[in-house]
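Comment on this:
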Amino acid sequence: MASVEFDPYLERKAFDETKEGVKGLVDAKITEIPRIFHVPKDSLTDKKPSVSDLEIPTIDFASVHVDTSSREAVVEKVKYAAEKLGFFQVINHGVPLNVLEEIQDGVRRFHEEDPEVKKQYFTRDDDNKKFIYNSNFYLYSSSTSLNWRDSFVCYIAPDPPNSQDALFEYSKHVMSLGGLLFELLSEALGLESETLKRKECLKTLLMVCHYYPPCPKPDLTMGISKHSDNSFLTVLLQDNIGGLQIRHQDSWVEVAPLPGSLVINIGDFLQLITNDRFVSVEHRVLANRQGPRISLASFFSSSKHHNSRVYGPMKELVSEENPPKYRDITIKEYTDGYFEKGLDGTSHLLNFRI
């Protein structure tokens, strides 16, 4: 019997036109995973976390406002994590536990809504939309396999949507925590506390709320393919299912869920403006038979809309001995290329190296 010709574009289009995402496939009780979700065989060989003694640091922020020496101790830990690993977890971060629980419940409820309700928000055109639901933002990027997750995106700052629900309650706390993180990161660079805020690193907050349905064949696909973030900084709330891993040297290291904590990671823009002092590292999420897995990534990304501000290595951090490693860019230039490329496992930052 002749095999049916596989046309990935048509399969992606057919999947997209359902407007029901991966959740729709699971609700249809599929037992096989569509080919458009299959990752290349060579990327299946390292799905298990490598044997490693490395643990992602957990930093307690309880003492950050107590006195100078306590704050300096926290700054030292932040500095180590930002320079060596690009990732750390924080506890006593100021976001109440009930707010963390409510926002996770809210994300789950949205993704488990009647499909006809979700379809009202479904779009591939994010221009001037405050709230967007879809699956795989790079759906038509032929260089990447699709990932086993659906997402909704909400632009929170500088112009929040007109709503008072759990998402915005959570976002107020995240904005406050972001302000503190940028102060500590500025101090870790040996600069004034307000330095990174003055560069508008805190200007835009984009929240992406992921839903990873249980996967019948998790060895064939990924929850999110390996990538680094197109942000200055990312604040991640993950539930207890796990699956997040970061790349460290040649190993994959698990970021084990810690109840009540938030995961912080350095993004590409912060690596660029710190001239490689801080590192934006690749990370990924495994698909899982358990589920759904819920996570919320809050990106401090400056604005790709109508923002002409140019970013390059900060003058305070470059010298004759340490010249700029990157050319100047706008956030829009970087982000447009990042989205076009999709999550293909390569760093978009490399395209801007001098």
About this structure: The longest strand covers residues 150-157.
